[in-house]
Recover the amino acids of this structure.
């Protein structure tokens, strides 16, 4: 399965000349999921040649402007380009009011069905589920209701232990059931438990996106062992007071979460506009969690 | 008086990789007026080094997304950068609802007063007035309530006819009153009418901004003789049917208005995303009105 992440925007609060407001595209086997949609996201997608009409699901973490103000423009663009395929939006119910009001006032009559899924940020829930992936919310600690998102590949089929199964001459038509976990009873009535016949399949890939949030360890169990954790690191540690006051994290906070959750890789982002050079944030995070990288707009990361 | 126009965005409907949604900055003697505020306007202002905290008045022509979707982001940025000076917004009352709802949902507590002035698009009215300029709405013919804006310099003082006034030995302290139009009575009681003493001052500069609109000659009297007319020219003449259906203009329409209104210069803009090369639109307009130029983002035009 391919899990590719493209960062469209990694700035916090205000866009800068070089960094845009929060938005990401997660491409799972060519299904495109948009995570947050700050101002300018549609232009970033054009720039990075992302076929944005293929987005069917949009996840908005919370209703601070830097995470959703590019959405209306994108929804109008979908319409103007003749989209008829439905689009699903997952967010705080306030966003539905904001969208509905603007559609009404502009007298737009969208060509496509817009299906809104309200998120209750109070607890973690599976909000999306298809044949290859599930998306679960992660409760964040921010000034207004906010969630992160955990994208997890569906558990893979178990692998048949070839040497065992061949020796036993199990008919090929039984293989699919066994891969899915069934036991097997042979012609003489002897039962073989599934774990005699198979080994577990490869570990499902997972991507956790945590922005915006103050420091909290509450969601560590949920993101345990994720292949990639995107975590906000708005400030460096010398601005810890600012971070605490504003319900944001420092690069040390983000790295501490990554360490405690035992993730494979940490990507920091949501940088304050005050930082031109981001390397000090990276170096600081690495003192706690070595496998840290900087979110960089337009780069495609294979998870 | 200096009248400088910077185009921040000249695309219609959807932004493209090279053109942004509608937005303009008019700089009148270093007072900055923002006309429309499509998505990305704040980033364009950073790019063109416009000191956007000096904007005090924002005029929004109508509530199609490409003319206002950059406004919320700019308003939040003003706040985040610590603005305390009031900001005035002039638009259809629907915009106030859109702004208020988003401020409420994001729990923003703006540091500055936001003063909203509702525009009744049905008739042309003076909506702004200071010591150097007036702004008047222009009724446009579009699918939803829409206005253009006419910026006119205040009438300049009359010029004293030096040869007359010196011969008569009028005291210098009387000059200011005479320049403002007063008559003068000398020591012997003889009255001199003002037009014996003065000639009219230079013609006030004016800038008319007409976007979006279908073709109508209704506002020609209002914009007569303007120094610069920005007029939408969404399509070329071969798309006249599209233009009429969508209440937009062709380049020939825009040039016809310019010709009939006897303006000094026409700037066309609000180009459909289908045009990569804009020169055919320019050439077409010039067949009707020679002194036409293309709106180009970032260029500063002296009016």
């Amino acid at each position: 399965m391919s899990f590719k992440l493209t960062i469209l925007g990694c700035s916090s609060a205000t866009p800068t000349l070089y960094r845009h407001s929060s938005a990401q595209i997660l491409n799972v086997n060519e299904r495109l999921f948009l995570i947050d949609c700050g101002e300018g996201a549609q232009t970033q997608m054009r720039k990075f040649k992302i076929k944005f009409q293929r987005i069917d699901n949009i996840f908005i973490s919370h209703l601070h402007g830097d995470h959703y103000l590019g959405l209306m423009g994108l929804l109008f663009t979908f319409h103007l380009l003749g989209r008829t395929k439905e689009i699903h939006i997952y967010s705080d119910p306030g966003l539905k009011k904001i969208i509905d009001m603007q559609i009404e006032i502009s007298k737009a009559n969208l060509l496509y069905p817009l299906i809104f899924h309200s998120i209750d940020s109070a607890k973690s829930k599976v909000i999306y589920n298809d044949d290859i992936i599930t998306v679960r919310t992660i409760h964040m600690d921010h000034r207004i209701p906010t969630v992160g998102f955990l994208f997890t590949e569906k558990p893979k089929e178990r692998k048949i232990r070839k040497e065992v199964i061949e020796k036993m001459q199990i008919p090929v038509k039984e293989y699919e059931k066994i891969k899915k976990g069934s036991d097997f009873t042979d012609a003489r009535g002897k039962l073989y438990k599934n774990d005699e016949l198979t080994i577990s399949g490869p570990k499902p890939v997972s991507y956790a996106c945590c922005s915006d949030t103050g420091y909290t360890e509450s969601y560590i169990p949920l993101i345990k062992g994720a292949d990639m954790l995107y975590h906000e690191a708005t400030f460096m540690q010398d601005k810890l007071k600012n971070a605490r006051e504003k319900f944001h994290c420092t690069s040390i906070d983000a790295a501490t979460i990554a360490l405690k959750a035992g993730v494979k890789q940490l990507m920091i982002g949501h940088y304050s506009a005050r930082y031109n050079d981001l390397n000090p944030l990276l170096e600081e995070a690495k003192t706690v969690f070595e496998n840290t990288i900087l979110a960089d707009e337009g780069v495609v990361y294979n998870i």
Observations:
- The mean pLDDT of chain A is 95.
- The interface with chain B takes residues 13-17, 20-21, 39-40, 42-43, 46-47, 63-66, 69-70, 72-73, 76-77, 80-81, 94-95, 97-98, 101-102, 105-107, 143-144 of chain A (CB under 8 Å).
- The first helix of chain A runs from residue 41 to 47.
- The domain at 3-156+202-302 of chain A is CATH 3.60.15.10 (Metallo-beta-lactamase; Chain A).
